[in-house]
Amino acid sequence: MLTLMRFPVRNDDVPTLRGWIRSSSIRAGLAQRAKIVLLSAEGMGTTAVAERVGVSRPTVILWRDRYQQGGVDALVDLPRPGRRSDTDEAGIIARTLEAPPDSLGVTHWSSRLLARGMGVSNVTVAKVWRKYGLQPWRTETFKFSTDPELDAKIRDVVGLYLNPPDNAVVVCVDEKSQVQALDRTAPILPLRPGLPERHTHDYVRHGTTTLFAALNVGTGQVVDACHERHRHQEFLAFLRQVARAYPKVPLHVVCDNYATHKHPAVTAWLAQHPRIQLHFTPTSGSWLNLVEVFFGIITRQAIRRGTFTSVKDLIAAIGAFIDNWNERCQPFVWTKTADEILPHAKPRKRTSFTRHYKPGCFGKHWGLRARRDLEQEPQTGKRALPATRRQPNTPDQARIQVVTPADASAMQITAPPSPQEAASRPTRSPTATSGQAVPWKKMESAFAITSAADLVAS
């Protein structure tokens, strides 16, 4: 009796292949190949699989062999030859990284503005942006602490999170000021299938309150109080409340550098209660305070979408949320050590500003094209890339550096070495002086884009 050998399929590939078969958005060819592999894995023969899927026997054999050679990735179509794109991707990227002309009166490029200036379609510009991850419409912010005791404070606070003292309680304290009691001018329209909850844009403001909260790092429970103001008197009253909640144990309080936390009256009270010790986060470092995470949660889940006819209703809603929170809470787990945080918390001098991109952007393929054109037309000086060396007028402007024919001649660009030669060659500086031969791999960094963000990136 003839026994068929079961076709071997990797266990971790099975969920992927089954997902391809069930997917309604994947190409039919990929789903068909996945079905061939899975049916073969069930022990079906070549003829049976071909009849079941509706293909020929050579097709079944082809995709089974391809899977054995390269796994799931081998089932995807290989790149096919075609006409090389004549899109000047380098030029589009270079113009994108430059600030728009003052005559346009805009702060950043749009795809249509850039396309009009370069004589291409906005679809082409959008494709290049998407290919290389350029998003001129996006902006982000950053801020570094200027606290001269940054290192010591970060190590102090993080040390309390990761290694709290024995038989002691660590709480994170802060105030959320100006919490508004807002009442909508029309009833809220409830959630419906296909429609989110909706409320009017205008509102009636009935007043504000300040929420004081102390988050227990070990348990996640919160001690809270609401006051009309947030002066040192209210902060001192809240400290007394926290001290009563955790009696007869050393109490370590993490708080920020707000002036009321360092008021002489507060300092005098702490001197009379040595079991309570304040630990301050660095200037502009409130993100170290875990109670800020709790403030974000209560804002999203209880305050922002609430409707309150008075401050009393607002305080009642806050109290109800915190009471329920304390019944179901879990501690927030801090995972980063101080040594991991410090390099990202302050600017530092960089030894290199090169930002490498995916192959085909400013790497091997582009470099070979530039080298080919330089060799073919050394007299005319024509090049595949714009021979510009733009220095930024301001730190916020980006720059692109491109190797010119003169640079290439001075650097004596050599042909790409074989893998064996490259492995045996000693490493050389990419900033070689005239007369030194530079390995071709070193030229890849010459076609790299740098931006002002690199100056502060960590």
What this model shows, in words?
The protein is built from 17 helices and 7 strands. It is α/β, with parallel strands linked by helices and 458 residues long. The chain folds into 4 domains: 11-75; 89-132; 150-187 and 201-340, Nucleotidyltransferase, domain 5 (2-Layer Sandwich); 364-455, no CATH class. β4 (251-255), α10 (264-272) and β5 (276-280) form a beta-alpha-beta unit. α2 packs antiparallel against α3, α6 (111-118) packs across α7 (122-132) and α8 (150-162) runs antiparallel to α13 (338-345). It is elongated. The N and C termini lie far apart (67 Å).
In brief:
The chain has about 450 residues and is α/β, with parallel strands linked by helices.
